[in-house]
Amino acid sequence: MAPILAKDAAQRLVTADAVMQPLDSWLSARWRGSRAGAGTLAPMSRPRHLACIAVVVDEYDRAIDHYTRDLGFELIEDTPLEGDKRWVLVAPSGRAETRILLARAATPAQREAIGNQSGGRVFLFLRTASFDDDLARMKARGVEITDGPRTERYGRVAVFRDRYGNRWDLLEDTTA
Q: Which end of the chain is more exposed for a tag (fewer CB within 10 A), N or C?
């Protein structure tokens, strides 16, 4: 099926096939014998980055609305898959390399994990060069700010919960 692209996302399209290479081919390409003994992974020779992280949600469209309208993310891809599954990627606006895969809960155990994927700890960290603007936007959209803002040695931080209960740090980017 053809992907459904968000406005201006054509250049950043990462299809499900490209991100989700079959595990067996990945392992066979990386699995090498070494002096330390057969069956060890060869070191990676090329730079890597974390492409996406799955956040379990109750329903796709409600999650897309929350992440794009309330948190200011961009919809990168929304591709129908088999059955009623979808490949939905969102990312913070700008140059984000890491995307969030909005994964609809399909089992009772997955439904129980919604909002508690990190056992109550801060789960995700959103760094921004527009701390005050982003915080004001979140507050205006009804996002629950649970702590802060406060100043730490690395910059300002505010803790918030997404609509599912996952805890996030909004961090001021002091490197720019």
A: C
